[in-house]
From TrEMBL:
Molecular-function annotations in GO: nicotinate-nucleotide-dimethylbenzimidazole phosphoribosyltransferase activity
Pfam families tied to this protein: DBI_PRT
Leader sequence segment: none
Protein name, UniProt field: UPF0284 protein KME60_09660
Record-stated family: Belongs to the UPF0284 family.
Listed HAMAP family: UPF0284 (MF_01086)
Domain of life: Bacteria
InterPro entries xref list: Nict_dMeBzImd_PRibTrfase, Nict_dMeBzImd_PRibTrfase_arc, Nict_dMeBzImd_PRibTrfase_sf
Organism, as annotated: Cyanomargarita calcarea GSE-NOS-MK-12-04C
Length: 375
C-alpha cells in the first residue's frame, strides 16, 4: 500500500522505523489571494468559493458528518474534497489532530491554534507578506514542531496543509530556490495549467526587484531575479503555510519522524526547510523526514513529481499511498482516477499512516472513506 519513488533505501528505513508506531496529525491552514485568480485552482468552483475552502475542510475534519457545517464543503468541478479521506482515517484510528491558522481571511469555525499570521497577497505582486510576519511564522513553526516532536518521540508527526492556490506558490518558492520546477508541479485540475502558473510566478519573481532587499546580493537564474534569503523569498512570493510547516519539520525532526503530507507543496516546503536550516544554521535531521502523497500526484502524467523531488539537492524519500477509487461506487471518488483533486489536507499521508500504524489495506481504506459519504 506504500510506494517509494525516490531515495528508496532511506524510505524503506523510515517505514521500518515507524511501522506500528502512533502518529499525530497537524494541519496548517493558510490563504493566498493567488487562489482567487480565475482558473488557477479547482479547489472550489469559483473564486468566492475558494475563500472558504480551508475553513470548510477544517470544519469537516473536526466534526465529520455528524454536525451541520457553518461552511459546507465547496462545490468542485468534479470529485470530493480530500478531507473526506483524511477524516475517515483520523476518526477510525483516533489519531490526535492539531489545527493551525497560519493566516486565513476569516476565523475558522472549529478550535484552532492561531499563529498570528495573515493571508498572503497574490504572489504576482512580489510583495505577498511582510518580512516580519514571515519571521514570526517561522518562530511559531519551530516552537510547535518542538512541542509536537517532544510529545511523540516514539512515533512521527504528519504535517498536512490546506492552501488554495498553493501549488502555484510552491512553484514560486522552488524556482526562487534555484530549482527548475516549471512544467513539473501538480494541480487540482485533471490537466495541470502550467502556462498560467508560470506566468504568475515569473511576474512575481521579477517584481521582487522592487522590494528593499540588498541589491548587491541578489542572484539571477535566467531572467528571473531571486531573493538572497529564504525568508525574503517567502515574503515575496510565498504563502503563510510554507514557512510554518518548514519550521515544524526542522524542529520536530530533532525528536521524531516527520511525514510531510502532500505533493508539490510539501516538496517546496522540504526544499525551503533545507534552505532555512542552512542559511540560519539550524540543526535538524533531514533523514527523519519523508514526503508522502497519493499515487494520483506521484504518477500524475501532467506533472513530473518524481523528477521534481530528484531536483532538490537533498532529495527526500517520496512515498505515495496505492489507494485506488477505481472500484468505488461513488462518482465523486471515481473522479480521482480521472485526475481531479488528487491530494490535499494531508490525505495521502493519512493513508500511509493507516497502513503503517494499523496495516490497513485497500479494502479497509475504501470502506472507511465511503462511509464518510453516506447521507
Amino acid at each position: 500500500m506504500i510506494q517509494i519513488y525516490t531515495q528508496i533505501t532511506q524510505g524503506e528505513k523510515w517505514i521500518a522505523k515507524y511501522r506500528g508506531t502512533s502518529p499525530v496529525f497537524a494541519c496548517v491552514l493558510g490563504f493566498t489571494d493567488t487562489g482567487l485568480i480565475p482558473g488557477i485552482s479547482a479547489a472550489g468552483l469559483t473564486p468566492e468559493d475558494r475563500k472558504y475552502t480551508a475553513i470548510a475542510d477544517a470544519d469537516f475534519l473536526y466534526y465529520g458528518t455528524g454536525t451541520k457545517p457553518q461552511y459546507p464543503l465547496p462545490p468542485l468541478t468534479a470529485g470530493a474534497s480530500p478531507v473526506v479521506i483524511t477524516r475517515a482515517i483520523v476518526e477510525s484510528l483516533n489519531i490526535p489532530v492539531y489545527l493551525f491558522n497560519a493566516g486565513l481571511p476569516q476565523p475558522p469555525t472549529v478550535p484552532v491554534i492561531d499563529l498570528g499570521g495573515f493571508p498572503a497577497k497574490c504572489l504576482s505582486q512580489g510583495r505577498a507578506m511582510e518580512l516580519a510576519t514571515v519571521q514570526h511564522l517561522l518562530e511559531q513553526g519551530l516552537l510547535w514542531g518542538e512541542r509536537l516532536g517532544n510529545k511523540n518521540q516514539d512515533g512521527y508527526v504528519i504535517l498536512g496543509e490546506c492552501v488554495v492556490g498553493g501549488t502555484t506558490t510552491a512553484l514560486a518558492i522552488l524556482t526562487g530556490l534555484g530549482i527548475n520546477a516549471a512544467g513539473k508541479v501538480n494541480s487540482s485540475h485533471p490537466v495541470c495549467n502550467h502556462e498560467q502558473k508560470w506566468a504568475v510566478v515569473k511576474e512575481g519573481l521579477e517584481k521582487m526587484r522592487g522590494r528593499d532587499w540588498d541589491q548587491e546580493t541578489q542572484r539571477n537564474f535566467g531572467s528571473v531575479p531571486v531573493s538572497p534569503s529564504p525568508l525574503e523569498l517567502v515574503a515575496s512570493v510565498g504563502d503563510p503555510m510554507q514557512v510554518v510547516v518548514a519550521g515544524m519539520a526542522i524542529s520536530a525532526s530533532r525528536h521524531c519522524g516527520v511525514l510531510l503530507a502532500g505533493g508539490t507543496q510539501m516538496l517546496a516546503v522540504y526544499a525551503l526547510s533545507c534552505a532555512i536550516a542552512q542559511t540560519y544554521s539550524l540543526f535538524w535531521c533531514p533523514q527523519q523526514v519523508v514526503v508522502g502523497t497519493t499515487r494520483w500526484v506521484a504518477e500524475d502524467p501532467t506533472g513530473s513529481t518524481v523528477e521534481l523531488a530528484q531536483l532538490i539537492a537533498e532529495t527526500p524519500p517520496l512515498l505515495a499511498t496505492s489507494l485506488s477509487f477505481a472500484d468505488s461506487g461513488y462518482p465523486q471518488l471515481k473522479a480521482y482516477e480521472q485526475g481531479f483533486v488528487k491530494e490535499g489536507m494531508g490525505a495521502g499521508g493519512a493513508c500511509i499512516a493507516a497502513h503503517l500504524s494499523h496495516n490497513w489495506e485497500q479494502e479497509q481504506l475504501l470502506k472507511a472513506i465511503e462511509a464518510q459519504l453516506v447521507e
